[in-house]
Structure formats: structure tokens, C-alpha cells
TrEMBL record:
Name recorded for this polypeptide: CBS domain-containing protein
Record's keyword annotation contains 4Fe-4S: no
A Pfam family it matches: BON
Limits of the CBS domain: 7-63, 84-139
Domain of life: Bacteria
Record keywords: CBS domain
Species, as recorded: Pedococcus ginsenosidimutans
Length: 211
């Protein structure tokens, strides 16, 4: 599964120089965890996350403290440029979702910008990837059975258990690789096993099968 097949499009973003207030309002209204900041060519030059906003020194509420507390010492930032993370990590739309999922897990990030030729084309989040796991086994099996038949490979048998696809009936390495590639591209598939492919070509007891 490739990132372009699951990413959120269009991606919310803001241009360099946007005000903090505009950024805060967009984060809240769009229910996103981060906003890419782009230049005039729509290239990602920064990213502002919920955490970046929360790090800004808010005025303390005296009702929550036993003794008076001083007000904020630093002025409130006026633009996103002052709080954004510059030159953020991005992923290509052709990237493998499995690799991006590992990146998000390792870093703790909730989302990451997706680019094509350096320009922002979408966002991919942990929730986008988790939605893949909600695809039912029966839906996966129906789709693959249909796609194999359309390819002229109705003899390939498919079983699915908890997202693991098992394909049998392929002939030779090339068919096995084709079956594995097709199955891996289906949303919800977590693992693909192609069992015991027989040597290419029909056995003496079989009539040739046309594709």
C-alpha cells in the first residue's frame, strides 16, 4: 500500500508569515494535529503542531495556585514562523505505508506531510493508517478473488485470517510475485503468504490454461 492511496487530500496548510491566531483557529476547526507551513511555491518549509502551540507561555490562572504567580515574561508570538519547526521531515506520495507507520511509531508524531516534486500534496496520519486495519477479512477476500479472476487467474485460491492473506495455486516465481504484489496493495492486508508455487507450466496431466 502506497501513501498516496490513503493520504488526506487536500492538506490544510498556511503560508509563511501567517498569524498565530489564524493557525490556532485552523488547527481547532480542521481537527488536525499539525499544519505544514509552505512558501510561495507550495514547498514545505516548516510545520506547526499542537505541541508547538502548547509550549507557548500562556498566562497562568491564579485560581489554580495557592500563592500569586507572575504573568508571562515573554511576549506572545505573532506569527507561526516564530514557533514552527523548520525543514520538517516529509514523505513521498510513493512511499510504503508500512515504512511511514514505523516512522510515526518511532517518533511519536501524529502525522507527516506528503510531497511530490518537493510540493505539498497531502498529509498522512496515524489514524489514516489505523483505518486500514478495520477492513474485514471477507472484504479483502472478495476483492482479491475478483481481481485475480479479472486477470485470468481464477485458479488462485485466496484465504484471509486477521488480515493475513494466503494465496495458493500460483505457478512459478513470477506468478507468486504477482499475487503477492496484488495482495499487498489491498487496504487492510497486514501480511501475504504465497504457498508452495508449483513449477511454471502445466503438468503432464493438465491441459494448458489460457490467460
Amino acid at each position: 500500500m502506497l501513501v498516496r492511496e490513503i493520504m488526506t487530500v487536500p492538506a490544510h496548510s498556511l503560508p509563511l508569515g501567517s498569524s498565530m491566531e489564524v493557525g490556532i483557529q485552523l488547527l481547532a476547526r480542521a481537527h488536525v494535529s499539525a499544519l505544514p507551513v509552505v512558501d510561495a511555491d507550495h514547498r514545505v518549509v516548516g510545520i506547526v503542531s499542537e505541541a508547538d502551540i502548547l509550549r507557548v507561555h500562556l498566562a497562568p490562572d491564579p485560581r489554580a495556585h495557592l500563592r500569586p504567580v507572575p504573568g508571562p515574561e515573554e511576549p506572545w508570538p505573532t506569527t507561526l514562523d516564530e514557533v514552527m519547526t523548520p525543514e520538517p521531515v516529509t514523505v513521498l506520495e510513493s512511499a510504503d505505508v508500512a515504512d511511514v507507520g514505523q516512522l510515526l511509531a518511532d517518533t511519536g508524531w501524529k502525522s507527516v506531510p506528503v510531497t511530490h516534486d518537493g510540493r505539498l500534496v497531502g498529509m498522512v496520519s496515524r489514524s489514516d493508517i489505523l483505518r486500514l486495519l478495520t477492513t474485514s477479512d471477507s472484504s479483502i477476500r472478495r476483492r482479491l478473488t475478483r481481481e485475480f479472476a479479472e486477470l485470468g487467474r481464477a485458479r488462485w485460491a485466496v484465504s484471509v485470517a486477521e488480515g493475513q492473506v494466503t494465496v495458493s495455486g500460483t505457478r512459478g516465481r513470477r506468478e507468486a510475485e504477482l499475487a503477492e504484489g496484488m495482495a499487498s496493495a489491498v487496504p487492510g492486508v497486514r501480511r501475504v503468504v504465497v504457498t508452495s508455487p508449483s513449477p511454471a507450466g502445466p503438468s503432464p496431466a493438465q491441459a494448458p490454461e489460457t490467460a
